[in-house]
Amino acid sequence: MGLELRQQLKLTQQLVMTPQLQQAIKLLQLSRLELVESIQQELMENPFLEELDPEVVDTAPATDNLDDYEAAHVDAQSREDENLMRSADWENYLGEFSSVTKQSLGRELEVPEEGLSFESRLTSKPSLEGHLAWQMRLSNFTDRDLDIGEIVIGNLDSRGYLQASVEEMAEQLPDCPVEDIEAVVRRIQRLDPVGVAARSVQECLLVQLQHQGLDEDPVLVSLVRDHLEDFEKHRYKPLTKKFKITMEDLKDYLDLIQSLEPMPGAHFSSGEPQYVSPDVFVYKVGQDFVIVLNEEGFPRLQLNPFYMENAKAKNTAEREYFQDKVRSAEWLMKSLYQRQRTLYKVMESIVRFQRDFFEHGVTRLKPLILKEVAEDIGMHESTVSRITTSKYVATPHGIFELKFFFNSALDLDDGTQVGSESVKALIKQLIGEENPKRPLSDEQIGEILKQKLEVNIARRTVAKYRTAMHIESSSKRKHVF
User: Fold this and answer.
1) In terms of Cα–Cα distance, which of 263, 136, 132 is closest to 192?
2) What residue spans in the chain does CATH classification 1.10.10.60 cover?
3) pLDDT digit string (tens) for 444-462?
4) Percentages helix, strand, coil for the chain, rounded to the nearest 5?
5) N or C: which end of the chain has fewer CB atoms below 10 A?
6) Keyword annotations for this protein (predicted)?
């Protein structure tokens, strides 16, 4: 069998992701903060792009000096796009995607972010380690004690518990007896917060009792040291018989124990709260809902007129560089415009599908999938998925992520459907209103849901939703007192 080389022509279609298209797709899924950082990075790298002066109102960049450059280096289609981008009023380009004009909204619809308290502007939160080290330096700790205390503080977890044994810490300090380390640990346990550096919950609570002068009650000390598990499992009657006390006395002891802090370091946790600036605001005005995109702090872009006027290419390399930067600036502005337009259209569609939610709250949330919104606005599901990622909307019922409005469905007896989030909200409401002495079981909750929503929901489904909301079972929610 002979081998031969042969040339052959073949016509195929292939999807190519250009850098510009990749950038546009990336901008869709960026959060508000990430988008601002991306724009600032582009402003630093592209001399043809600049941020419009916030003081300039109703002013568009000049275009008279760009004709020569366009005629030499830009084709007809690019010239048309560039004229559109440079003639756009970027001061108000986000305002196009609003159900009403900003002037008609009035002050009552503005973002309530001006009167922030001083505490909300603090740059950092004190850590548990720094708080304890500060107290040690203000106390009569010797230099040796400070060295030991530094080792002890370094072995605390986020709850304030000591995670290393005295012997392990002694290995880190040469010629340091175990007794000295134990003495420093006991002193640290009495710093603020009291009970920090304890090895167990029992030790933590006993230190707090001793600090309050309550450790002379043998019943109270025994309850804390040996019977916390009995309290957790609501085994109260055996305790009353063992200590020969009444149920009222046991309740007083339980109230006192519950007033103690089992996790003294939790208030100094390093996990900072995440403050969300909504991307969209939805207000109810009369019988209609107004959709306003949040443009506060959003950079307004334009082509730099100085660089455009003096962009006279002297050679091919310079000409290609100028063309590339101008196209990059144009594409970024067009991508931002398209991003805001897509966000507005998706939010408009969500309001149409979930109008009952915006009227009455989460209990009226309907089942919704990405495909329904995509078909409603004429876009692909992947586009809807990207634009709803890390985006938040401020509604009359609170701030929610856009993904929250997409939830699965449960069939009702009449053939209609109800959203799973609505069922979760009703389960949470029922548990919040239950009698603590007779909490509702999962089976009872299912029966109530069947009566109120006419939905057939299994007990295991109720348990799954309850667990997802971090709600304990009925046996652990029961309170005898």
Assistant:
1) 132
2) 409-477
3) 888 887 777 666 777 888 8
4) 55, 10, 35
5) N
6) DNA-binding, DNA-directed RNA polymerase, Nucleotidyltransferase, Sigma factor, Transcription, Transcription regulation, Transferase
User: Which residues, including other chains, have CB under 8 Å from residue 270's CB and lie 6 or more apart?
Assistant: 127, 158
Q: Which two tokens stand for residue 232?
A: 């957790």
Are 377 and 346 in contact, with CB atoms under 8 Å apart? yes
- Going by C-alpha positions, the residue among 298, 326, 300 that lies closest to residue 311 is 326
- Rounded to 5 degrees, what are φ and ψ at 251? -65, -40
Domain 128-268 has CATH 3.40.50.1220: no
| Phi and psi based region of residue 198 (left: phi greater than 0; alpha: psi -120 to 50; beta: remaining) | beta
CATH of 409-477, one of 3.40.50.300, 3.30.70.1230, 1.10.645.10, 1.10.10.60: 1.10.10.60
The percentage of the chain sitting over the pLDDT mark of 90, rounded to a whole number, equals: 23
The segment(s) of the chain belonging to CATH 1.10.10.1330 are: 128-268
The 3-state DSSP class for residue 60 equals coil
Coil, helix or strand at residue 329:
helix
pLDDT at 95 over 50: no
Give dist(CA 26, CA 20) in Å, integer: 10
* Token reading at 319: 């000409």
- Measured at the CA of 33, the angle between CA 28 and CA 35, to 5 degrees, comes to 35
Please report where in the chains the tokens 């002193």 appear, as a residue: 187
84 pLDDT tier (thresholds 50, 70, 90): very low
Q: Which single residue is written with the structure tokens 């979760």?
A: 424
Q: Work out the average pLDDT over 90-97.
A: 46
pTM over 0.85: no
CB neighbourhood size of 7 (10 A): 4
Taking only the tens place, the pLDDT of each residue in 411-422 is 555 555 566 677
